[in-house]
Amino acid sequence: EQISDYLIDKGEFRQVIEAEQVKEAQEPGAMEEASRDPGEETVKQITVLVVEPGKVPYTKEIGDDWRAFQAEVGGTFQIIYPGYDPVGLVCNDDGKLLGLPLNRALRDENGEIYDAIAGTFFICGAPADSENFASLTDEQVDYWLKRFAKPEFFVRVNGQIICVPV
Fold it and tell me: CA 91 → CA 5, 66, 136, 155, distances in Å?
């Protein structure tokens, strides 16, 4: 039992177990109820930009905690920091392995594709002077809304993946 507890605390097993618990909370409102203990403060809400495959991005208020992040992307998540803007791109950590649909391409400063995000993701503020995430500013929403405005379609041609705006 002690070995099991140690592995859960030190390994990625806790994330897997907690992700399964999140999936089991299927009733509306059950997620919010499960995310806090009695007497615990309400989770702070932040404004994010949600980008779903094949859809136009939209803003949404979500909780600033790992449970809300997992619920939004459909499982365990990773955070990517694209460029120099203090934002985090939060996506499903196993999106490609799970076969989630490719969503949007990530491009370098020259416009060359270096990766593609699979599944739903969102952009949130990631201030450099804070350990917490924050709401996007109006300027950030405008920038990222324009950046991911058009859904993208991915095709394989001669062994290469080509991205076409829809």
Answer: 28, 12, 17, 21
> Closest by alpha carbon to 126, among 114, 138, 140, 145?
140
Rounded to the nearest 5°, which phi and psi values hold at 145? -65, -45
Q: Residue 129, Cβ neighbours under 10 Å: how many?
A: 5
* pLDDT tens string 103-142: 999 988 888 888 999 999 999 999 877 778 999 999 999 9
Across 13-137, where does the E strand assignment appear? Answer: 45-51, 58-63, 77-80, 87-92, 102-107, 113-118, 121-125
Separation of alpha carbons 50 and 52, rounded Å: 6
pTM for the complete prediction?
0.72
Mean pLDDT, residues 78-102: 91
3-state secondary structure 59-73: EEEEECCHHHHHHHH
37's tokens: 């203990």
